[in-house]
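Fill in residues.
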């Protein structure tokens, strides 16, 4: 597993963003043959190449959406009511979703990039970056957003483009 160099990632992103978005847009409309079986295989390869703890860009630049279940679970951990927790840490975004008030995430330890509530973290965090969701068509728009922040998503799309261009 390789440490993520965010400066290098940003350079690659600026060079490839347009082509990657084009691939995602095209494949969202017409998923390439075999993509459903290819995704889990490529996801394994990606996680052998990307070390999230060396990056934590998602926690630094993005925010999860907190569900009602997340609120109950996390607020109980802190001995707060869901309302107390919400008022202290969360706000409603333009979609009326509950998200962090600030970035980086208040639960991210910036010294080691570890989550202080990892075992009870929001479901959105636990499933991020949603690489091998079975239906590519339903998650392509998520990948289009995540390539700007997540080296693992970037790497997945890069591998997919190489795979389908080689055919």
């Amino acid at each position: 597993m390789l440490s993520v160099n965010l400066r290098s990632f940003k350079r690659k992103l600026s060079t490839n963003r347009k082509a990657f978005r084009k691939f995602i847009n095209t494949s969202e409309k017409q998923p390439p043959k075999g993509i459903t079986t290819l995704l889990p295989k490529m996801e394994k390869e990606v996680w052998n190449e990307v070390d999230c703890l060396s990056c934590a860009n998602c926690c630094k630049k993005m925010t999860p959406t907190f569900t009602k279940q997340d609120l109950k679970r996390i607020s109980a951990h802190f001995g707060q009511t869901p309302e107390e927790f919400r008022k202290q840490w969360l706000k409603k975004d333009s979609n009326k979703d509950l998200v962090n008030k600030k970035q980086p995430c208040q639960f991210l330890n910036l010294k080691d990039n570890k989550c202080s509530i990892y075992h009870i973290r929001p479901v959105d965090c636990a499933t991020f970056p949603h690489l091998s969701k079975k239906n590519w068509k339903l998650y392509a728009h998520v990948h289009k957003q995540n390539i700007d922040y997540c080296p693992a998503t970037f790497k997945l799309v890069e591998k997919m483009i190489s795979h389908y261009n080689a055919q």
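The mean pLDDT is 94.
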